[in-house]
Amino acid sequence: MAALIAASECDEVGLGTSATRTGKRIGPAKAKEILSLFEQVPRYSQAGFRHFEEIQLFVDGISKDRISDISCNFLKSFLIDFTIQQCQKLGLQRQLVDVKNVYNYRKNQFEVQKVELPLNPIDGSPLIFVPKRWLRFVPWLNYDDYFQSYCPQDNIAHKGEELTRVEVLEYNRDNYGAVDTYISAKELSFEDCKNDPLFSQIPVTSAKKKFSAIQKLPTGKDENADRKYEALVGQLLPSLFYPKLDFAQEQARTDSGVSIRDLIFYNTASTPFLQDMFATYGSRQITMELKNVAAVERIHVDQLNRYLAEELGRFGLFITRNPLKKAEMSRTIDLWSGQRKAIVTITDADLAQMVELFESKQRDPLDVIVKKYSEFRSKCP
Fold first, then answer.
1. Pair 296, 331: CB distance under 8 Å
2. Is it the case that residue 120 has pLDDT exceeding 80?
3. End-to-end CA separation in angstroms for the chain
4. Rounded CA gap, 303 and 317, in Å?
5. pLDDT at 200 over 70
6. What is the DSSP string of 194-235?
7. Strand, helix or coil at 315?
8. C-alpha to C-alpha distance for 104 and 4, rounded to whole angstroms
9. Residues 143-158 pLDDT 10s
10. Residues whose CB is less than 8 angstroms from the CB of residue 380 and which lie 6 or more positions away in sequence, other chains included
11. Where are the domains of the chain?
């Protein structure tokens, strides 16, 4: 039980959305619930788990985030080697520290090791790096996939009833055959489990969580709200627009002493709208300027105007919290009239609609930008 609790969180890697990078390990009660599966499910009492990701399908509160933490702890010695390699490559300083819960496969136990690692400049805690390509993928076996494609929902709830996660997990514990069918099917299709070397979308549940976190942020810079906003939007939008817009980079720039964060996308010209943006505004790239402010001001409009040069094209977007005020909206219309530059504003309400479309798959989230652009052009002379 102690080993299971220790493995349930990996502070050095810091996966998740906690502002302190410090998560919360499972408690003895949750660990006991997991271990009880070896008594409740005959398959596990005889042979154990084929994949420890299966825990998600039986125990509430164990999701893909927790599975990722457990994976990191069992792989920690390899991740430490990777971190040291990257520090040497990039010239980052390291210090000798105690690292807890490093799995020793020879002894089959967790232990403390002294290693040289980079430290968090804020609190001095050790940091462990993870290959970026790993972070773009959810576990091959996961609850969302099971529920959507394999779960016998009609056997659990009557028609019209809302089926909760707890009800599904309880059903699985009493009907292991449903889980076994899912596991067997996934194992037969293992060749489909391939990494896209360029990009893969985040799951719907993660998109909803990130937007929920955005909604809870105050406007302004207090408690680094602006940076948190930029980070969350920077994680959300590339997935919402993929593959119609191909994420290029997150870029910081300075204009008149003001730090500005942009998202730059390659224009794939794969839709009539994107083709029009290229033909009309020369937009080989699409620039989105992130503003966590209560209201965009004229200085912000002028900054984006100066940035929309020929090399980037003359079409850009504000990603901000609220619609433009009348004066700023008039300024964007004047820029279109005089310079044929188009500046469209995407608000929290628009992001909500994008996430809804991303979840329902009824339309493409990019259609929200198409709508907003049409509304903008209708105001232009």
1. no
2. yes
3. 70
4. 12
5. no
6. ---SS--PPPHHHHHHHHHHHHHSPSSSGGGHHHHHHHHHHH
7. strand
8. 14
9. 888 887 788 887 787 6
10. 333, 336, 337
11. 2-192, 204-379
